[in-house]
Design a protein that fits this description.
Low-confidence stretches: 307-338
Strand content: under 5%
Oligomer: single chain
Order of helices and strands: HHHHHHHHHHHHHHH
Structural class: mainly alpha
Radius of gyration: 20 Å
Number of strands: 0
Length: about 350
């Protein structure tokens, strides 16, 4: 299986799992858990589950080089803050609308990559532009009063989620996806769990109904699988293409919210959803190449000084190609970044 097919499959599976997350999260909140409790418990349980699986099945994947660990800590901390905004927003707006707004994150991904002197090109730019009118239409609630604070919180969550992708992409040049997923989830937990303990009450865990634990467990499982497949997609396709394919989570969220939670979209919101889905379908003709190791601006510090034997054993791609040592100069360069 070539790199592109592997990345497409992983990104598609990630979209399915991510699409289920807001529905499970909204259900857990409706059944008694606070947004902070949902954000902290699902992240911590998913991180511990992944740690257990890696320790038992492939303990060598516990290794990560120091700069890569710092990158995961930074990415996880940023995504942890975004997670707090995400679940805080779900307490104020519908799960389907929240997920649709959160799906604007590819626009922010393009912004962060552009700031790192890796702007998207060609058809990818057109797919991004197609999302702009969709953002406006998705905020049209068909006569209902819209909670603009909830909308702003969800857009903030999208921006922070987008920011962690290019950071993790740089670490994924040297490390396997499960390793990056593990340390990112652990650092997310280091943000959301203290936030819950400081700004919420532990009593909320007791006041929630026993049945509320089931959607929380479901949320933990989809978080576990969505993160692993997400970073596999980023590793093989790059953050930009994975983000655009990830918009497929809209179909999952809207359909499940329609069936399970009884939520409905206005006609204007449906038009916005169709525009977003059109951007996803264009991936069939968007042949942007996967990422390669390169000298970048604000992410260059994540490069290891020399290839480590453990890194060479744990990664499917060759070591960096354009650094200072003679060994690295003989490495094969990858293809250009989308």
């Amino acid at each position: 299986m070539n790199q592109r097919i592997r990345g497409l499959r992983a990104a598609g599976l990630s979209a399915v799992f991510l699409g289920l997350a807001p529905v499970f999260g909204k259900q857990a909140i409706l059944m008694g858990f606070s947004p902070l409790a949902v954000a902290s418990l699902r992240t911590l349980m998913a991180a511990l589950l992944l740690l257990l699986v890696i320790a038992i099945i492939q303990p060598k994947n516990l290794y990560i080089y120091p700069a890569g660990l710092l990158g995961c800590l930074l990415a996880g901390g940023i995504n942890g803050l975004g997670s707090l905004l995400f679940y805080g927003s779900l307490a104020r707006i519908d799960a389907s609308l929240g997920q649709l707004l959160n799906s604007t994150y590819p626009v922010f991904v393009a912004l962060w990559f552009t700031l790192d002197f890796q702007p998207p090109k060609g058809l990818t730019v057109f797919r991004l532009v197609l999302t702009l009118p969709a953002i406006y239409l998705l905020t049209q609630a068909g006569g209902r009063e819209l909670d603009m604070v909830g909308v702003a919180m969800m857009l903030g969550a999208a921006a922070l989620y987008a920011l962690h992708l290019p950071i993790n992409q740089r670490v994924l040049y040297e490390m396997p996806a499960p390793t990056v997923t593990l340390y990112t989830l652990l650092s997310m937990s280091a943000v959301v769990v203290p936030a819950f303990l400081l700004f919420d009450s532990i009593d909320t865990l007791q006041t929630a109904s026993a049945a509320a634990w089931w959607p929380l467990i479901g949320l933990t499982v989809v978080t576990f699988f969505s993160r692993v497949t997400l970073f596999m997609g980023v590793k093989h396709l790059g953050g930009m293409q994975t983000a655009l394919i990830g918009l497929g989570e809209l179909l999952v969220t809207v359909f499940v919210a329609y069936v399970w939670l009884g939520e409905r979209l206005s006609p204007q919101q449906w038009v916005g959803a169709v525009l977003l889905m059109s951007s996803i379908l264009l991936v069939l003709v968007d042949k942007s190449p996967p990422p390669r190791r390169r000298k970048t601006r604000w992410l260059r510090w994540l490069t290891p000084p020399t290839p480590h034997p453990e890194m060479l054993q744990n990664t499917e791609t060759p070591p960096p190609a354009a650094e200072t040592t003679s060994q690295e100069k003989h490495s094969k360069p990858g293809r250009d970044l989308a």
